[in-house]
């Protein structure tokens, strides 16, 4: 009855919020072409790869000031590694 409907509405809201958060995270990734469909796992893998890249760039900057951020290797896109 009513509790089941309230639970379903809460779950729909939770899923919608989570979906929106993943889309926002994907938009912040600089090397993902627009309108690319990615799974949540791929978005998380790309985000962690990008964070690692930024971390390495900052560490390199501390070691060699003035050289700026490094460039992304490959074709300019970060792709998740599927194992």
Automatic annotation (TrEMBL):
Domain named BHLH: residues: 2-54
SUPFAM superfamilies named among the record's database cross-references: HLH, helix-loop-helix DNA-binding domain
SMART domains in the cross-refs: HLH
One Pfam family matching this protein: HLH
GO biological process: developmental process
Single GO MF annotation: DNA-binding transcription factor activity, RNA polymerase II-specific
Region (Disordered): 57-83
InterPro entries linked to this entry: bHLH_dom, E-box_TF_Regulators, HLH_DNA-bd_sf
Protein name (database record): Transcription factor 24
Organism taxonomic ancestry: Eukaryota, Metazoa, Chordata, Craniata, Vertebrata
